[in-house]
Design brief:
This protein is α+β, with helices and mostly antiparallel strands. It has 11 helices and 11 strands. 46% of the residues lie in helices and 11% in strands. The strands form 2 sheets. Strands 1, 2, 3, 4, 7, 8, 9, 10 and 11 form a 9-stranded mixed β-sheet that branches. It has a two-stranded antiparallel sheet with strand order 5-6. The radius of gyration is 36 Å and the shape is globular. Belongs to the MID49/MID51 family.
């Protein structure tokens, strides 16, 4: 059968290449034999063996560099070489698991280390300078993490509370002088730091600025019944206009379409905090630096003390405007909800956690603190705020399971699993308002990043601590 010219040339090229390789192998083999034969006379048997291994290694290197290789062969050599690397013995082998709790004999002293006096009594065992490292359980790691990364020194908490209280008094005096016609209630600092729910550092305080609304002139409308259709919010409607016309209340100047506008009130107070308050004088009086944050749409005050840094969130609030004692906040909302008031569920959630723990001496609040500290220390989990984590702990906390300290590790893993399952569905309902999905503000990319970090954390929980 005749072959085509192209196939003939390809066959000849392969043949020439294999032939040249064979001749090269024969030449290298002859050179190796010559070197080894003469090395036995000069170096002896041991030296000749070392030289032979080195020469064969050079030959293999030349073969691999000059000969084409199949992809499968490359992969095979790769995992073989990796297995050889993994099989390389360490200088200090680890003891077997069964002997972790037993004393480890000291290694032989190195030649450079000074030798001590020889022990004459064979019955006396040598004393170790440090105990052998033990493999800590997840429970033990959690308790150590809680001690080192969660607990806040009492002195730092006291200083933060003192600064927040002094700032509240100064700010209240300023508001009363600047806006004497507007009836504000007592400025009350509070938040997680005051409820024992702050983790890691005393760096955030809530300062409630309550409005005193006239009874009978205002009513609440659910956000879902407004044009915004937002279940998170409420509208504060002006009533009794036929008996108390517009202008009868000092808050009527902030009305938009018959509703008290949170947006207009926020803009007024933001301008006052940024331009009218003498913060250098107040900071000098309190022994710290204070300035309003201009980067955020919230009303934030940054406080820098020589012993801590503190953020004070000034929250304009409508407290107890109905029989359910709801707390509504003036919050920078977007779109049609811009004039509405955001319902703040933090006081209700904190009270529920406290009641559950008091009932069975449980560790729900400790679990929340651990989760907050873990997410705070992991950049991939930074999108998970206290509100997200509180819903997870509340959902788990309602179950009749073991909430003692001994079960804290199990509850920790259960919380991670619940978070991961919620991320898979892109849904985390609010515990006290199930129509609100707390994951609705997260982008798909953010959900993927958080989910991957949680999945990796479940595979190796110690890596989160």
């Amino acid at each position: 059968v005749g072959l085509s010219p192209n196939l003939d040339r390809q066959t000849m090229a392969e043949f020439s290449q294999k032939r040249g390789k064979r001749r090269g192998d024969e030449g290298l083999g002859s050179m190796v034999d010559f070197l080894l034969a003469n090395a036995r006379l000069v170096l002896g048997v041991g030296g000749a063996a070392v030289l032979g291994i080195a020469t064969l290694a050079v030959k293999r290197f030349i073969d691999r560099a000059t000969s084409p290789r199949d992809e499968d062969d490359t992969k095979g050599d790769s995992w073989k070489e990796l297995s050889l690397l993994k099989a390389t013995p360490h200088l200090q082998p680890r003891p077997p698991p069964a002997a972790l709790s037993q004393p480890v004999l000291p290694l032989a002293p190195s030649p450079s280390a000074p030798e001590g006096p020889a022990e004459t009594d064979p019955e006396v065992t040598p004393q170790l300078s440090s105990p052998a490292p033990l493999c800590l359980t997840l429970q033990e790691r959690l308790l150590a993490f809680e001690r080192d990364r969660v607990t806040i020194p009492a002195a730092q908490v006291a200083l933060a509370k003192q600064l927040a209280g002094d700032i509240a008094l100064e700010l209240q005096a300023y508001f009363r002088s600047k806006f004497p016609e507007l009836p504000f209630g007592a400025f009350v600092p509070g938040g997680p730091l005051y409820d024992g729910l702050q983790a890691g550092a005393a760096d955030h305080v809530r300062l409630l600025v309550p409005l005193v609304l006239e009874p009978g002139l205002w009513s609440l409308v659910p956000g879902v019944d407004t044009v915004a259709r937002d279940p998170r919010c409420w509208a504060v409607r002006r009533t009794q206009l036929e008996f108390c016309p517009r202008g009868s209340s000092p808050w009527d100047r902030f009305l938009v379409g018959g509703y008290l506008s949170s947006r207009i009130l926020l803009e007024l107070l933001r301008k006052a905090l940024a331009a009218s308050v003498n913060w250098p004088a107040i900071g000098s009086l309190l022994g710290c630096l204070i300035w309003p944050s201009m980067a955020s749409e919230e009303l934030l005050l940054e406080v820098q003390h020589e012993r801590l840094e503190l953020t004070v969130a000034v929250l304009v609030a409508v407290p107890g405007a109905d029989a359910d004692d709801r707390l509504l906040l003036a919050w920078p909302l977007e779109g049609l909800a811009g004039n509405l008031w955001l319902q703040d569920l933090y006081p209700v959630e904190a009270a529920r956690l406290r009641a559950l723990d008091d009932h069975d001496a449980g560790t729900r609040r400790r679990l929340l603190l651990l989760l907050c500290a873990v997410c705070r220390g992991c950049s991939a989990l930074g999108q998970l705020g206290r509100g997200h984590l509180t819903q997870v702990v509340l959902r788990l906390g309602e179950d009749n399971v073991d909430w003692t300290e001994e079960a804290l590790g199990e509850r920790f893993l259960q919380a991670l699993e619940l978070l991961l399952g919620s991320l898979e569905q892109a849904s985390l309902p609010c515990h006290f308002n199930p129509s609100v999905n707390l994951f609705s503000s997260l982008r798909e990319e953010e959900i993927d990043d958080i989910g991957y970090a949680l999945y990796s954390g479940l595979q190796e929980p110690e890596g989160l601590l």
